[in-house]
C-alpha cells in the first residue's frame, strides 16, 4: 500500500487493529515511520482503524477486510 506511511508495530498494543501495520506493503517505494508514532493512554494518533465487512449480493457473499476482497 504505497500511498500511506506504514508502521512497523514498535511493540504497540494497537498494531493488530491498525491498517498502517496490517496493510500489504508495496513492493516498490513503501514508506514507514522512522520513529514510533505518538501513543498516549492506549490511543495512537497515527492509527487508521481496520474494518471487516461482509455483504450479501444475491446468492454471493462478498467479504472485504481493509479494502481487500477475500
Pick out its properties:
7 strands; 70 residues; mainly beta; 3-stranded antiparallel β-sheet
Strand content: 25-35%
Shape: flat
Query: Order of helices and strands, N to C?
Result: EHEEEEEE
Largest sheet: 3 strands, antiparallel
Compute the number of helices: 1
Helix content: under 10%
Structural commentary:
- The chain has 70 residues and is mainly beta.
- The chain has one domain (5-69).
- The chain has one helix and seven strands.
- The protein has one helix spanning 19-22, and strands at residues 5-6, 31-32, 39-40, 43-44, 52-57, 60-65, 68-69.
- The strands form three sheets. A three-stranded antiparallel β-sheet has the order 5-6-7, with no helix packed on it. The protein has a two-stranded parallel sheet with strand order 1-2.
- The longest helix has 4 residues, at 19-22.
- The radius of gyration is 14 Å and the shape is flat.
- The model has no long low-confidence stretch (mean pLDDT 77).
